[in-house]
Amino acid sequence: MRWSRVQAVARKEMLELRRDPVLLRVILVLPVAMLLLFGYAVNFNLKQIPTAIWDRANDRISQALVRELEKDGKFDVVYRVSGEGKLKRLIDRQQARVGLVLPPRMLERVRAGKGVKLTALIDGSDPTFAFQAQAGLQKAVGRLNARLITARMLACEAQPPPLTLAPKLLYNPEGNTAAFMVPGIIGIIITQIAVILTGLAIVREKETRMLESLIATPVRPGELVIGKVMPYLIIAFVDTLLVLWIGHVVFSVPLRGSRWLLLALVFLFVLGSLAIGIVISARSRTQVQAIFGTLVYYLPSIFLSGLFFPIEGMPRALQLATYLIPLRYFLEAARGIMLRGVGLETLLKPFILLAIFSALALLLAILSFRKRLL
Amino acid sequence: MKAVEKVRAERLERRFGCVLAVAGVSFEVYEGEVFGLVGPNGAGKTTLVRMLSGVLSPSQGDAIVSGISVKQRPEFVKERIGYATQEASVYPFLTVRENLEFRAAMYLYGAAVGRAVAVALARFGLEEVAGRRAGVLSGGWRQRLSIAQAVVHQPQVAFLDEPTTGLDPLARRTVWDLVYAEAERGMSAVVTTHYMDEAERCHRVGLFYRGRLIALGTPQELKEALRRRYHFFRVPGSDAEVWRARAGVVDAWQRGGATRIVLETNAPVPTGAIEEEATMEDVFILKIREENAHALV
Prior knowledge:
The structure holds two protein chains of two kinds.
Chain A: H1 3-18, H2 21-41, E1 49-55, H3 60-71, E2 75-80, H4 84-92, E3 98-102, H5 106-111, E4 116-123, H6 127-155, E5 163-170, H7 177-207, H8 210-215, H9 221-251, H10 259-282, H11 287-304, H12 316-321, H13 326-340, H14 344-368
Parallel strand pairs in A: 1-2, 1-3, 4-5
Antiparallel strand pairs in A: 3-4
Chain B: E1 5-16, E2 19-30, E3 34-38, H1 45-52, E4 60-65, E5 68-69, H2 74-80, E6 81-84, H3 96-105, H4 111-123, H5 139-151, E7 157-161, H6 169-184, E8 188-193, H7 196-199, E9 204-209, E10 212-217, H8 219-227, E11 230-236, H9 240-244, E12 249-255, E13 258-264, E14 274-275, H10 280-296
Parallel strand pairs in B: 3-8, 3-9, 6-7, 7-8
Antiparallel strand pairs in B: 1-2, 1-4, 4-5, 9-10, 11-13, 11-14, 12-13
């Protein structure tokens, strides 16, 4: 082995990298972005869990419990309702993820030394979240119990814990992780197929100058874009159905809501993702650039969509950033349809936002794809 | 009978930032004519062809192709032309037939696609490889397919950008025969090349240099014009350097064991020198030399 030849090859590679501005930017930005995303997004300590309360007691004990819940910032009591049905609806809509039923005459019962059973409705679609929320509730109740016992012990003899928690996991009572993950896997597959494959498909034609030959034909930009993305639309649909079927047969993942609504959702998300793929490829000169370009889109989608890491655990700034991630809306709606069995009336917001994303992405795709070279 | 004009470039100009790639070029191409755009690499030939085919918009000027302005209605121009890029633009995973079908479908629909493909396969001798993937074809066959694709819809004008680059002489000859066969059927072809022997094959040639057309005419006309100003001789020996230093010698270069010299018309003819014909290579080199001399002034 001659070291000078190795050096010459390495130098050439470095020069090529340095002179590819897009690649250079990605190489420098990607690790920093990854580190920040990992550092901030990967946080399983949930904060500000939106919580709804049906306070039937409305006495000092129930008020003390609410204060305990909000004390360490884990829970944020955003709704006070009357009726368990309303609590459930709020959780269905994901406006609240925990619902607490505080029974009547809590103070009276505690004073009488009778136990008080608190019913907690917890969104169980994400087993990790459910476990953490449950632990948080237990901790808050435990703290209040300790205070009550201390207070009562000063006055009289020891008592068993006055408050007990009866958690009820909604949607996924067995804590089936697959049930939570399958909608996410569909989201990943769609993102991969739509963004990465479409991105590569067009830039490959550009690299081999096939695109120039096509541009010289009467084919319209719209025809070219639609023709290009159609196969990937079909592939994404077939893959989605395959994942749904395997998820159902092998992992017992339910599909409680409308399958047509789910397919409509998939269509909307695929369309937007395909358009993003076209935008990336239209702005890339080489396939390597396109791959890195798709990573720049793909990685934040994975980290910030709530797919693996709960959004409630992220800092406020990142939580706001998640609103820019279309996968977030897809997951919200897909989990709603599949696990919670809710319909369009409940999922209107993620559907509308996804439709806006797809429309904007398509517009951007058509604007990016100019049929003349310059 | 007056020849029908198929391409008319009118002071066509293209800038890329502050770089002037094509500087006010005007010429015409007639029906059934094979027009060669000859020039060194980087002269602006491809840019010119891209403008003529509606792929690139001109910065100034216009071109009328098949009666339509490329500046105002490039999409209509595209329906009437065929275009083959510098590298053979074929889809490697598609068969020859599939490649042709795809391209034909850009212009035609229904049964017309199949008919056009059948005609193209026959005319270009591609029937024997119709079922083979384009990726496994040799360079010659691939280029043949590339041109067949460009003319599968039988356009009025075809723009072929360096269709023979990288091909062996036999394959090059085949390509030219195919181009001429199409021209016989009435198609006009604008072919770019930097091979001087290929320039000889064209009906007319435009010599392109630094974005400008520096000579225009039939190969014969261009050579005769050159012969009125220079004489070409072959002298024994291989001392081109010595010859170049002599008065009256415009240029000299080695060719085999002899030296070819270019003399001004009034220069004395060296003893033992054998007069030779002017070639397109002479036209190319001497025209460019003159251009450079003017540029220095």
